[in-house]
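From: lab user (bench 3)
To: helpdesk
Subject: output format question, protein + flavin-adenine dinucleotide

Hello, I'm new to running complex predictions and I'm not sure whether the block I got back is the full result or only part of it. Here's what I submitted:
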Amino acid sequence: MLRPLMEKVVVIGSGCAGWTAALYTARANLQPFVLTGKQPGGLLTTTSIVENYPGFPEGVDGYELMTRMQKQAERFGARARFGTVEKADFSKRPFALVVDGDKIEAKTVIIATGASHRHLDVPGEDFLETKGVTYCATCDGALPVFRNQLLVVVGGGDSACEEALYLTRFGSVIHLIHRRDTLRASKIMSNRALSNPKIKPVWDSVVTEVLDVKQDKVTGVRLKNLKTGAESVLNCAGVFIAIGHSPNADIFKGQIEMDANGFIVPKEGTMTNVPGVFVAGDCADHVYRQAITAAGMGCAAAIDAERFLAAQNH
Ligand SMILES: Cc1cc2nc3c(=O)[nH]c(=O)nc-3n(C[C@H](O)[C@H](O)[C@H](O)COP(=O)(O)OP(=O)(O)OC[C@H]3O[C@@H](n4cnc5c(N)ncnc54)[C@H](O)[C@@H]3O)c2cc1C
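Helpdesk reply: Thanks, we reran it on our side. This is the complete output you should expect:
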């Protein structure tokens, strides 16, 4: 039987966290092996303009930024394989990964699998993504299309309140649409949101459609009141969906420590509960969820992995 490939560093994921981890470990001569997953380049490839990544005063296309990150890491010896990790065994070293049926052994692993935002799954939502539908106020709120406009935030948790509050800087009125008659958010966040004169709650209601596909941009949302069954249309220029994120970390359950929502919990620095397995980016971050913070964690994980290997005389 062929011996599985043995890698010094395997990076699982090719978003900002993954490629930054690859860049740093490549420059440390560790020839990292990057497993791209189903979305090479990660979430940022789905956005046309990134205006808050330092170094790009005019903004940068998300796909272009990620292609540049990949090229930069490859220049120093990083290698990539289009593949998805199906199984991981962290019970003994070297660690064993199964990637599309092949076995790969690794002395260290950096998990950078990101998190997926939850969708409303209503008509118009997917089609109008980036045309007024967004999942990140910090990323998109300042775009000209939302300035002094009626905006909608969907959700009732801390994130929805944070998004609504952030948007008060740009929008004229922020309608906060929630399926219940009280917010799920912490008291302090609820109070802050509800006492802001620009935020108007719409209780007991769900979005049943995002309008208007025919016009190729968001013009409003169709609402249904869950108590009365009444339907209505609320005009708006933007729909910010804040109903939670699911970390892409299910395959590590039972081995890697996670919080109640499935986010990986780093221990010291970026180390997980398994020595030699590190974590970076949105799969361990339910707070900031930005390209630059994911990249920063990728850098930290690479330095931690390098020091771990050095201490083991590799
Ligand atoms: C529409 C949109 C616009 C955004 N705009 C901005 C912005 O303007 N500015 C900003 O700072 N942030 C923005 N963000 C947020 C930013 O994209 C994320 O914070 C960032 O991408 C997180 O990087 P990451 O590397 O942690 O994860 P991701 O980018 O999500 O990458 C995860 C990677 O893991 C891979 N993967 C998952 N599971 C597996 C597996 N089992 N095996 C192998 N690989 C796997 C995926 O294929 C992917 O390559 C935006 C997000 C979205 C959705």
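A quick orientation on your result: The CA atoms of residues 205 and 225 lie 4 Å apart. Let us know if anything else is unclear.
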